[in-house]
Amino acid sequence: MSRLSRANIRARESVFTGGPELYRGDIQAVCPPNLEECVLAMEDCCEEAYEAQQLLRNGTKDLPRMTKVLASERVFLLVNEETVKRYKADLADEIEPSINELIARAEQGLTALEKKESLLKTKVENAQMRPMRLNMGNTAAEKMEARRLQMLIKQRERLEEEARALKAEVEALELKSLNQ
User: Fold this and answer.
1) pLDDT confidence bin for 21, thresholds 50/70/90
2) FRET label pair with 4: which of 45, 61, 125, 164, CA 20 to 30 Å apart?
3) Cα–Cα dist 152/100, whole Å
4) Cα separation, 17 vs 74, whole angstroms
């Protein structure tokens, strides 16, 4: 119930010191029941109008953003499957020569590494076949040869690892080219 629905039928108190005197118009100031109902109905209408105004404000305060959203253009366009297949074929035709060139390079690199690997294996085998001298006093040349042998062994292991990596890369590229 709003503050307006409580009708103040009495007259307000006087600000003068004389005290309340009965005014002749106060006798006839009693509201008829129809008028009181009319005031209550008017207050209800005011409350309904206020609630409708609040609802309208809440509904339209986002209007600038909504107009921008509704005014935006279509971003996505649907294409048929034939167009997708055509573009896929064009892309495959464009990329295929590059992939074939990369595969050829990888195979050349792999053969070069295999040659190096076989060369290093023969060097290691030759070094192992030399008779080891039993004397404890190793000369500087023997120490250099032992160091060189160790370096060759490490280089061989590294090249074997590179060969395996290149072989795996070639296989992956072949699979990729077959899938397209």
Assistant:
1) low
2) 61
3) 34
4) 78
pTM: 0.32
Instruction: Measure the CA angle with vertex 121, ends 139 and 149; round to 5°.
Output: 20
Q: How many other CB atoms sit within 10 Å of the CB of residue 166?
A: 19
In angstroms, the CA 153 to CA 163 distance is: 15
SS3 label, residue 40: helix
Residue-wise burial string across 73-109, b where 16 or more C-beta atoms lie within 10 A, e elsewhere? eeeeeeeeeeeeeeeeeeeeeeeeeeeeeebeebeee
How high does pLDDT run on average in the chain?
80
The span from the CA of 2 to the CA of 98, in Å, is 82
Q: Are 173 and 103 in contact (CB under 8 A)?
A: yes
Phi and psi (nearest 5°) for 48?
-65, -40
